[in-house]
């Protein structure tokens, strides 16, 4: 009789735990849906704002296929919509990269630039802008922004490749990985400083603008590359969400649960490197999104990477979209580089997190 009662108590407890788990999962799912709706509303508002405002009725006419002013159609389809999509994709990419790197390296200060991606990409872009050519002899006059993007991508990957190589020599230690990233980043930063010193005035101006980050080069031709690449990278990262949940408890715990720690670390790091360096190649250096978005998401939704990763992506997209809209509108018709805006809100917010947060979000 006592055994039967004990068994019934266990069954009731398990049902209660399952009910609590389902309730929490539902709340997290509803939060993600709310963030997605908020992102869509923000994007719709951003389309109508600018030096040439587009009335809401005109935007609705374009959506429904009704007659609309040709100039407004051109502004929305060829200018604002590509830029808004570019800011959303960039925010998603940088936030996803920051979230995964913080998980893999177990370091709250890790972001897409920790392993030298930004410094390598900056050097590649600087080389293209100042020298007017790439390492393969392509000419800037003929290739335009594609040469800058190609060089940035190439040297961003080169920087991370060197860091990976150094880490592998020391058994893939995360500490060595971080320190090597800092060292390689400083090396490429010195190269950028040297190119600034020797460049002429026009090249120096172009280089400084690129380093500030922005979406002036947004277009459908760029999105044709970034959209499928970002979608594929996110699918790969989501595939390892359960393994990342195990990894945040420590490598030894993850190994006992059957997680292939080294395999997952290298696959995810290569994926986020490709994601971040490709984005940086077309937008320039945009800081703090990959650092701040994961922290906000942990406070909102917890550390389950099945929900944390999409939440970080949505938060990153929202932050960058709002920042770019502010950059466009603050001094209309002059546009402020979006990298300046993200630094203005990112630095104080991150200091606030360091000083005021009440608990550690890694447990």
Automatic annotation (TrEMBL):
Coiled-coil residue spans: none
Transmembrane segments: 29-47, 59-77, 84-105, 117-141, 148-167, 173-195, 207-237, 264-293, 305-322, 334-355
Keyword Ribonucleoprotein: no
Alphabetic keyword roster: Cell membrane, Membrane, Transmembrane, Transmembrane helix, Transport
Keyword ATP-binding tagged: no
Cell compartments where the protein resides: Cell membrane
Gene3D superfamilies to which the protein is assigned, alphabetical: ABC transporter involved in vitamin B12 uptake, BtuC (1.10.3470.10)
UniProt family annotation: Belongs to the binding-protein-dependent transport system permease family. FecCD subfamily.
The protein's name: Iron ABC transporter permease
Organism: Paenibacillus ihbetae
């Amino acid at each position: 009789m006592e055994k039967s009662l004990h068994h019934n108590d266990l069954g009731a407890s398990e049902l209660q735990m399952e009910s609590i788990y389902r309730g929490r999962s539902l709340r997290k799912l509803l939060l993600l849906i709310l963030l997605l709706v908020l992102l869509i509303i923000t994007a719709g508002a951003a389309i109508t704002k600018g030096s040439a405002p587009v009335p809401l009725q005109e935007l609705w006419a374009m959506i429904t296929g009704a007659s609309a002013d040709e100039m407004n159609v051109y502004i929305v389809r060829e200018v604002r919509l590509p830029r808004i999509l570019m800011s959303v994709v960039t925010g998603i990419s940088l936030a996803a990269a920051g979230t995964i790197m913080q998980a893999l390296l177990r370091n709250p200060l890790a972001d897409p630039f920790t392993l030298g991606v930004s410094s390598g990409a900056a050097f590649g872009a600087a080389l293209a802008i100042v020298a007017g050519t790439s390492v393969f002899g392509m000419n800037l006059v003929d290739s335009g922004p594609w040469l800058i993007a190609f060089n940035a991508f190439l040297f961003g990957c080169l920087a991370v490749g060197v860091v990976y190589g150094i880490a592998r020599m020391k058994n893939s230690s995360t500490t060595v990985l971080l320190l090597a990233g800092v060292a390689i980043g400083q090396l490429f930063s010195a190269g950028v400083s040297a190119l600034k010193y020797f460049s002429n005035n026009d090249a120096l101006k172009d280089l400084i603008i690129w380093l500030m980050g922005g979406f002036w080069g947004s277009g459908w031709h760029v999105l044709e590359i970034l959209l499928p690449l970002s979608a594929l990278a996110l699918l790969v990262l989501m595939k390892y969400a359960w393994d990342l949940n195990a990894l945040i408890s420590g490598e030894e715990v993850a190994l006992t649960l059957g997680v292939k720690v080294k395999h997952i670390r290298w696959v995810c790091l290569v994926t986020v490197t490709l994601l971040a360096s490709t984005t940086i190649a077309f937008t320039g250096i945009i800081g703090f999104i990959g650092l701040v978005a994961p922290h906000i998401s942990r406070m909102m939704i917890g550390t389950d990477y099945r929900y944390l990763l999409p939440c970080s992506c949505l938060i990153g997209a929202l932050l960058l979209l709002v920042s770019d809209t502010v950059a466009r509108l603050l001094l209309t018709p002059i546009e402020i580089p979006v990298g300046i805006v993200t630094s203005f809100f990112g630095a104080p917010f991150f200091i606030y997190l360091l000083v005021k947060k009440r608990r550690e979000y890694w447990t």
